[in-house]
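Q: I have 209 residues here and want to know how they pack in 3D. Can you give me a structure?
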Amino acid sequence: MNYSPDSDCQICPRLCSFRNQNKEQYPSFFNAPVPSFGSLDAQFLVVGLAPGLKGANQTGRPFTGDYAGLILYHSLQKYGFARGEYKERADDGFTLINCRVTNAVRCVPQENKPELSEINQCNNFLKAEIAVIKNLKIILSLGLVSHNAVLKAFGYKASFAKFVHGAEHQINNKITLLNSYHTSRYNMNTGRLTQEMFDNVVEKVRFIT
């Protein structure tokens, strides 16, 4: 199976309908399944939840154009996983180093809340993508949905490893799964996550890759 959905993917009717609505309301937006960002040769994979309506769904690049990306890309650059200046545009020249960023669900969901069936359908793409990242050593899941999606991609049940911010889980003899709360504006505003907390998680990656 291809690791990236077709630009007019029809697998999830609700998401497809929402995408068509957005094409009418926001004709200048990307409005399609958002492809991953970064090299397939990377050792480090970040898995988020889903594109934001006026973030990745607008720009066509994961975590680009919304608040969550400011936190994520600041930290990746701080620890040597990115170069350039992040300007919240897909054409800003910002690049990743030994890192790749994707989402558990590739299409923007209504109210940023994908349904379980949609997460499960899109998991086939995540599973296929992980399979072709041959140098992969560490996966950072942002939030519980991402955590469970990664486990499912490896054939594990959610009970295999509990999501805990900052936790490390050994997926197999090659790959480690790290957990962090999602870098969403809500989590940052409520104090559930701070830039320092997130930086501390990303810093661990340097000692694994």
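Q: Anything worth noting?
A: The radius of gyration is 16 Å. The chain has one domain: 37-205.
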